[in-house]
Amino acid sequence: MNTLKRRVAVSIAISALAVSAAACGKAGDDNSGSDSSSSGSGGKSIGLLLPDNVTARYEKFDKPYFVAKVKELCSDCTVSYANAAADPAKQAQQMSSMVTKGVKVIVVSAQDSAAIKSSIASAVSKGVKVVAYDRLAQGPVSAYVSFDNVKVGELQGQALLDALGSKATPKSKVVMINGDDADPNAGQFKEGAHKVLDGKVDIAYEQSGLWKDTVAAQKMSAAITQLGAKNIAGVYAANDGMAGGIANTLKGAGISTIPLTGQDAELAAIQRIVAGTQSATVYKAYKPEADTAAELAVNLLQGKDIKSLADTTVTSGSGDKVQAKLLTPVSVTVKNIKDTVVKDGLYKVTDICTADYAAACKKAGLQ
Fold this sequence. Notes:
By secondary structure, the chain is of the alpha/beta class. It has helices at about 5-30, 55-75, 90-100, 115-125, 150-165, 185-195, 215-225, 240-250, 265-275, 285-300, 340, 350, 360-365, and strands at about 45-50, 80-85, 105-110, 130-135, 145, 175-180, 200-210, 230-235, 280-285, 310-315, 320-325, 330.
């Protein structure tokens, strides 16, 4: 081969290697429209799949707490992260991508607990362990960590009755805006709330808000049209995001004195509680939940027993019995903000008491 031909051959070979490397790199990426906490594949890789980036807690608290705890427990472990952006099909693709990368344990908060079942079964068939996080996914999961979600609903219902006081009568019309039916938690919240509210008030309008503030606002507007603004005694909102949309609708309709519940202890909700436009929320401490999920994931990765961590069992929608850890939720009103979310370091008083809320904070005893 002459010199010119050798140079051409070498050039072609290098180009082919470059294209191959680029293709491999693309296949290994697991961003899927979201950030990846750390790269890596193989034996010490743990995956974290969260359902949406609208609910404030996931990106702000769950993800960083989980990653930090994994690093504390296993310094040479890597965490691959993806957010489904409320798209079940995207979450299925993200799980498949992680399995292909060689991730050995996947922690997933299912966007749709039933839709993710086949993806979980496929992952498990390839030797991957799956932990259901916050929401009980269907399929052969190894463990589940969340809160007692029926208790969450009970706390929400009781907070609404407490705020209604003497106005809580069987004739008092209450609007109930539930979560997304694809999320098993939503059904448990609803179950718990009904246990407390049924017979005590008249649930005159009940719809799903799909965990979306805009949908909840539309449903609230429809309830006002159907029932009449003066006839609504209180509103149950299954989470704080929807409560925010409902609060705006109530304000627009000139309704300012009726109780409104929520859940998740979002900062905006705490501020609404201080301001008096939301009565209560439910605080589910994110750190112990994320820490427990990380411990379960690392133990499964290392082949250790998890019964001491997951000390109870639950049955999923697919009939699978799953070892579980259920944490205790806490109701938050204006009276115990300091003793809950502030004491735990979730928020500082300065986070809550911005200029717009200074006067209300002073009245509430936060400043």
